[in-house]
Amino acid sequence: MRLQEHTVPSGRSAPLGGFLYLLLAGCTGPFVAEPPCVPAAGPVTLPSSVPESSGVEPAGEAAGSFWTHNDSGWDPILFQVDSFGTELGRVHVEGARNRDWEDLAAGPCPEGGRCLYIADTGDNALVRQDPAVYRVREPSAADETVTAQRFPVRFPHGPRDVEALHVLPGERLFFITKGRAGPVELYRYPGPPAEDEPVELERIQILTDRAPLLPSMVTGSAASPDGSLVAVRTYQALTFHLPDSAGLLEEVPGGTVNLRPLGEVQGEAVAFLSGDRLVLTSEAGPGGEVGSMAFLRCSLPGPSW
């Protein structure tokens, strides 16, 4: 029920990326014994236009391509890249502001088709009064403009820094706090998203006993397409969970993967792909280290993804 490995914080701070790189570079080693995941491809370098990749999702119609975005202060743009890290195009998100975009999720649109959900929920200083989620219909191609719907949210126990969003079937939105100033928490959006007044989220689970150490702060989460698995990542580890009907998470025994051998500068995002694979992205560093994308192949019990 609890995350076994802690996570590291993300954000717009360049010194943090350099610190994490130095902190984790000396800790590399083999994957844990009998790991549920092994490297499948990469890491590959992300384009210079995406130095702070904080979210990732496979593109629905284009096999082998992905959506990603920068975090705080950048333009509200979704970038499409291929599996080699080459930029294929850009989509401007009209009606949105990138205050601090921290994660990306996908799910069916209420009217049919596929939608992307952008978590504008980053809050390093724990002072924000305007966190929100944007929903856009997935672009049919890059180099177009999409219009966003904005769903403002509020945390009942005061501001939270949230870098992890996953969507379960039925357009059920879940948020996992980073653990910056307290235990890692799981929040649930009550009911279907609403564009009016801020909706107060429900805290449904406390996942750690205390605030995690820096390398173990939560930086991303993702749900498998059928909703049977949830992956939660930190700067240094990936953990798999089984969600129950309410969205509560139960950790899969032996389902923790050491990500340090990937050599990520500042690991931020995760998403499920078909064929028991996952994709991960990392921000670039201030010392010339590049942002990256890597792929894992995993073997876990339960329904096929």
Structural account:
This protein has 305 residues and is mainly β. It has one domain (14-298): Neuraminidase (6 Propeller). It has one helix and 22 strands. It has one helix spanning 14-25, and strands at residues 37-45, 55-58, 65-69, 77-82, 87-94, 103-108, 114-120, 132-137, 144-147, 149-154, 162-168, 172-177, 185-188, 199-200, 202-206, 218-223, 230-234, 237-243, 249-258, 266-272, 277-283, 292-298. The strands form five sheets. A five-stranded mixed sheet has the order 2-3-4-5-9, with no helix packed on it. The longest helix has 12 residues, at 14-25. The chain starts with 13 loop residues before the first helix and ends in a 7-residue tail after the last strand.
